[in-house]
Amino acid sequence: MSTAFPSLRRLNISYTLVHVAYWAMFAVFTGYQTSLLLGRGFTSGEAGIFASIRCFAGILAQPLLGGWADRHPEVPIKWLLDGCLVLALAVNGVFYAARPGFWGTAVIFLALGVLELNAYPLLDSMAVQFIAAGVNMSYSLSRGLGSLAYALACVICGQQAVRFGTESLLLTHMVLLVLMIAAVALYPTFPREALPPRVRGEQPHSILYILRSSRPFTLMLVSLFFALAAIMPIVSFMVNIVTDRGGDQGHLGLALFLMGASELPAALLFTPLFHRFGAAGTLRMSICFMAVKPLLFLLAPSLFWILLVQPIQLLGYGLFTPASVYYANANVSPVDQVKGQSIMMIASNGLGAMFGNFLAGYAIDWGGVNAMLGMCLAFGVIGILFMLAAGRSRR
Fold it and tell me: How far is CA 312 from CA 3, 68, 136, 278, in A?
């Protein structure tokens, strides 16, 4: 009996809409969270703590939710994702209406980390299910259009912040959350009869087992930890970089736009690179360019040069996102697919971003923007060293 999959056209359009809504929503909060917190009277160091709490909460929640999803494949992933987003909408409403102090804000960011950052691996897993079943989805194109949405949201929100204040962005964030909830609900449900048959007695494995079973995979995760620690503070503290080089909120929106828009060509570039070098080779290339990014920012003497080097995102984070999805899918057991995506996000966007953001805020308070960029450059170099160790281990 053949499985009736939804049409490829419907699947790609639906998945693209989910990515567009998610990355626009992500841009509004992540791109301007530091500016928002500074406007509420917090220091750069405290803003780094809140960004780290948000990442750490996602780290704690992702393996739990991913493990539950692997144990209950009959429950559509999209319903798990929508449940998280509805709760996130309520938390955002509280954050907008209230003006909590340090500990109240910490609790808000903890909740947003659990509810919103979990969307990332679940969003990837929604596509991985179909890809693993042989459906030729255009994941990289959907991700690229999501990056374009990120870029447009950044530049529009930069102008919105100048005209109506940074607080108004929280309303925009909530509107985009509602749109994403609707887009996820409309996404086709993976056919239950197409779920991969489980070997008798085979159950999802623990994170420790997955890490022990593949030394190259584990070393690559460590490499990504440092690579993301090198670039995520640049995003979180872009407002500090822009103002240090003579810009304002409007320039911040332009800088984030150029950074996000540069990821769109990666959607077209990824496919030939993937066929030529595979997921591992493409991922190694992205790690190298993520290490180069803080160096270019450190050498940029003015706002013009800060804007000029933003397209380095194309070969760094732009390639990392699709490459990491395919790499994790190829290096974990089929019964651990959701957890495998969660582990990848934990090591990179979770632990790496948390570690980098936490230290970056204090680096700015102690030594300014250049001190933070020098720290990020050191992390990038360490990431390359672990990447080389992973390649040697595989040989």
Answer: 42, 37, 29, 21
Distance between CA atoms of 190 and 130, rounded to whole angstroms? 7
Q: What is the 3-state secondary structure (H, E, C) of 15-26?
A: HHHHHHHHHHHH
Q: Answer yes or no: is pLDDT of 53 > 70.
A: yes
The answer to whether 173 and 153 are in contact (CB under 8 A) is: no
Q: Specify the residue for token string 């950074």.
A: 259
C-alpha distances in Å from residue 292, one per residue of 21, 56, 275, 277: 30, 26, 24, 20
**Residue 333 CA: distances (Å) to CA of 66, 204, 222, 302, 358:** 14, 8, 20, 48, 33
pTM of the predicted model as reported, rounded to 2 decimal places:
0.69
Give which of 184, 211, 236, 213 is closest to 346, Cα–Cα: 211
The string of pLDDT tens digits covering residues 344-375 is: 877 777 788 878 888 888 888 888 899 999 99
**Helix, coil or strand: residue 7:** coil
Sign of CA dihedral 72, 78, 84, 90: negative
Task: Write the CA distances from 325 to 127, 162, 293, 364, integer angstroms.
Answer: 10, 37, 22, 33
Which token pair is 133?
A: 């079943």
- 3-class state of residue 231 by DSSP: helix
391 burial (CB, 10 Å; 0-12 / 13-18 / 19+) is middle
Can you say how many angstroms the Cα of residue 370 is from the centroid of all Cα atoms in its chain?
24
| Encoded tokens for 367 | 């030594």
Rounded Cα distance between 219 and 225, Å, is 10
151-190 core/surface letters (b: 16 or more CB in 10 A; e: else): bbbbbbbbebbeeeebeebbebbbebbebbbebbeebbeb
* 382 three-state secondary structure: helix
